[in-house]
Specification:
The complex is a heterodimer of chains A (337) and B (410). Chain A is α/β, with parallel strands linked by helices. Helix content of chain A is 35%, strand content 17%. Helices cover 36% and strands 8% of the residues of chain B. In chain B, helix 1 (74-99) packs antiparallel against helix 10. The relative contact order of chain B is 0.17. The chains are: A alpha/beta (337), B alpha/beta (410). At the A-B interface, helix 3, helix 4 and helix 5 of A face helix 5 and helix 6 of B.
């Protein structure tokens, strides 16, 4: 099976979708001729023409707002916001418009759009290229929120998102674009070409939205993770020797609660990890759900490991980033609790 | 002389406030028929002056004059008059229904009926409007059933939107009427996107974007103009300047630009100002702009100069911020009276027939209201189910909503 980087897998997902359905169009800043600053759309304009893959003005509300109009017409836009940190000008269009169009018009108009954006830190991007704003979207009724953690899933989830009848926020952990980064920034990253999840089948396949997957089965404690944190969790489990069960959520909204509850009821312990800031982060929702659904199976308090409640710093990146050492300490404490 | 020293902060103020004498002497009204009608493929640079003038067709004597006249037959004009009268009558009844507690909220069009009613007749089937909350004439003039509008206003059991949306925030794809948001200006860039999609699909349909003078200050207005200009989108960009954004006079949003139409000039978009209370002028300019869009000539920005005679909404009281008699002093008159006078002048209408038509229309509106009220009003009779509240958030209901619906006991 061919191996692809996450960038190539994402590009392939758009390529396959555009080839199968002429309503699928792709646009955003630097997306057309150049192929995107991360090269996710490279070659699509040459292959499908300027009507189906094009550059836009620097206007995120314009990109998402026009995509909503196109979706109302009957197209299926898959747009790129260059960094998740830049999505805020489009927030009104996403929250008040895309998310509510089906509901408020009782299905008279719908909004099958995908808004792709690189998310997360680990690249010395400072506060404008490192944020993880997923909780701002999981709080919105009518959206779906996806965070893939590897090339295979990225392709299958993106195709599923493009084919979905509702708006999907597709957050791509940019630190995973070229390999499964586990937080050990001082070590070289294994390229996807040497990792089994870098195996990406040609042609069409989907990974269904709303389904989590167990990345590492274990009996001692459940770790709920997504994106880059899946590999941080794997490193933490190995380094502490704790038999953690690591769940890669893949889709945050709608959430695969069944897989979570089943696991926590078996392990009796739960640690939640995300890059985003702690307070009102998605971990708060996960923690509440675990408490509500697994209380009588819990043998220790549910613990959250997250980015500190500061803006994303530059020089202090590795003090901020919740790496394997921090998560490892939380695992040990949870086991001792 | 250079002003040295302390800086001074400038906040624009309207000419008069409550208690003062209405004054529109600063509104320059060109003579009807005096503004030229360019070819649709004119170089936008050659018609920049149209952004500072006002295209008018009906003169004080009720005659249709000048190069923008002559597009509509007597029958079409009579139909247009009927649409405007229907909208006014509909508004009056629904405003009253709101006061009677039959719904929570209402927004009327008083004084602005010509804008949406005449514009609708310049479009073709399949074209799509992205309206604000004050363009119900688009529906009335397209034959959308009044009773369905009322069902929506009452949020009753027959409400096509299942009680989920604020009154008057209609939606009808079939009638080329995009779901009204209620958030301001968001629809402007969506209209441009819809038009881009039509061009991408090599279709022949065009879009019409709608916005009020106040909301042009929103960034979505500007992104819409950038996208429309860049991609030459087949869209008519309408700005309804009714002088008031709730209590804020249009000078606050307009700033130093002179007119709202002038906003289009920097984008290279042909920009015209039109007498919004002149049914014939609105229709003629709309037709011109729609034809440009359909012939791949790109967007046109049209500013309709009109006046919001009524309150902003049923929750607003204009006497707190503008003179009571200001609407009487508005120099462009009343759109219904002006078209009525024109039709009388043409010999196809009379005061008697007008009075009779008013009575007939009122009867039709009351009949529709009775029918709608059989399906309930906001607080009485049939209403959408609690189950409807949970439906339609997604195409397929996700597990967490199913659980919540069970918790709600429905």
């Amino acid at each position: 099976m061919p191996r692809r980087t996450m960038i190539e897998a994402i590009r392939d997902a758009m390529d396959v979708s555009m080839g199968r359905d002429e309503r699928v169009i792709v646009f955003g800043e630097d997306v057309g001729f150049f192929g995107g600053v991360f090269r996710c759309t490279q070659g699509l304009q040459a292959k499908y023409g300027k009507s189906r893959c094009f550059d836009t003005p620097i206007s995120e509300s314009g990109i998402v707002g026009s995509a909503i109009g196109m979706a109302a017409y009957g197209l299926k836009p898959c747009v790129e916001v260059q960094f998740a940190d830049y999505v805020y000008p489009a927030y009104d269009q996403i929250v008040s418009e895309a998310a509510r169009l089906r509901y408020r018009s009782n299905g008279d108009f719908t909004c099958p759009i995908v808004v792709r954006m690189p998310t997360g830190g680990g690249i010395f991007g400072g506060q404008t290229h490192s944020q993880s704003p997923e909780a701002l979207f999981t709080h919105v009724s009518g959206l779906k929120v996806v965070v893939p953690s590897n090339p295979h899933d990225a392709k299958g989830l993106l195709i599923a998102a493009i084919e979905d009848p509702d708006p999907v926020i597709f957050l791509e952990p940019k630190r995973l674009y070229n390999g499964p980064f586990d937080g050990h920034h001082e070590r070289p990253v294994t390229p996807w070409s040497k990792h089994e999840l870098g195996e990406v089948a040609d042609g069409h396949y989907t990974v269904p939205l709303g389904k989590a997957v167990i990345r590492r089965p274990g009996a001692a404690v459940t770790v709920l993770a997504y994106g880059t944190m899946v590999y941080v969790a794997q490193a933490a489990a190995e380094e502490t020797g704790i038999d953690a069960e690591i769940i890669d959520l893949r889709t945050l909204l709608p959430l695969d609660l069944e897989t979570i509850v089943d696991s926590v009821n078996r392990t009796g312990r739960c640690v939640i990890v995300h890059e985003a800031t702690l307070t009102s982060g998605f971990g708060a929702e996960l923690s509440a759900l675990v408490q509500e659904n697994c209380f009588y199976h819990l043998e220790a308090p549910v613990v959250r490991v997250a980015g500190w409640d500061t803006p994303y710093p530059h020089a202090q990146e590795w003090d901020y980033f919740p790496g394997p050492a921090r998560l490892g300490r939380a695992l040990v404490e949870t086991m001792e609790a | 002389m250079a002003d040295a020293g302390m800086l001074r902060f400038h906040v624009p103020e309207p000419e008069v406030r409550p208690g003062g004498t209405p004054d529109f002497s600063d509104v320059t009204i060109p003579k009807a028929g005096s503004v030229p009608r360019p070819e649709i493929d004119v170089d936008p640079r050659d018609i920049r002056d149209l952004a500072f003038s006002i295209i008018r067709v009906l003169n004080r004597a009720g005659e249709a004059v000048g190069p923008w006249a002559g597009l509509l037959s007597d029958d079409e004009l009579l139909e247009g008059l009927r649409h405007m009268m229907t909208l006014r009558s509909f508004d009056a009844r629904m405003q009253m229904a709101q006061r009677q507690g039959k719904t929570s909220f209402y927004m009327q069009h008083l004084g602005e009926e010509a804008v949406s009613c005449a514009f609708r007749k310049a479009l073709a089937p399949g074209d799509m409007n992205f309206p604000t909350y004050r363009q119900a004439g688009l529906l009335i003039a397209d034959g959308y059933p009044m009773v369905t509008m009322m069902n929506q206003i009452y949020s009753n059991e027959a409400d096509p939107l299942k009680g989920r949306q604020l009154p008057i925030m209609y939606s009808s794809k079939e009638h080329g009427f995009f779901s009204i948001s209620g958030n301001l200006a968001t629809q402007y860039i969506q209209a441009v996107g819809w038009a881009m999609a039509s061009a991408i699909s090599n279709d022949s349909k065009i879009a019409a974007a709608w916005i009020g003078d106040g909301s042009t200050a929103e960034s979505d207005f500007h992104s819409a103009l950038v996208f429309a200009s860049t991609y030459k989108a087949p869209v008519v960009l309408n700005v309804v300047n009714n002088q008031w954004a709730i209590s804020t006079f249009q000078g606050i949003a307009r700033g130093g630009s002179g007119t709202f139409a002038a906003r289009g000039l920097g984008f290279g978009i042909p920009s015209l100002r039109v007498d919004g209370n002149d049914y014939l002028a609105v229709h003629a300019v709309a037709k011109w702009a729609a034809e440009r869009a359909r012939k791949n000539l790109g967007p046109t920005l049209v500013e309709y100069v009109t006046y919001r005679v009524g309150a902003h909404s049923s929750s607003d009281d204009p006497s707190a911020y503008r003179p009571k008699a200001e609407s009487d002093a508005w120099p462009l008159g009343d759109p219904i009276v002006r078209l009525k006078n024109h039709l009388i002048q043409r010999g196809v209408w009379s005061d008697e027939r007008h009075t009779q038509a008013e009575a007939e229309i009122l009867e039709t509106v009351i009949a529709a209201q009775r029918e709608a009220e059989r399906h309930g009003t906001l607080h009485a009779g049939g209403k959408p189910s609690t189950r409807d509240m949970f439906e339609g958030v997604y195409g397929e209901m996700p597990p967490h909503l199913r659980r919540q619906r069970q918790q709600a006991g429905v």
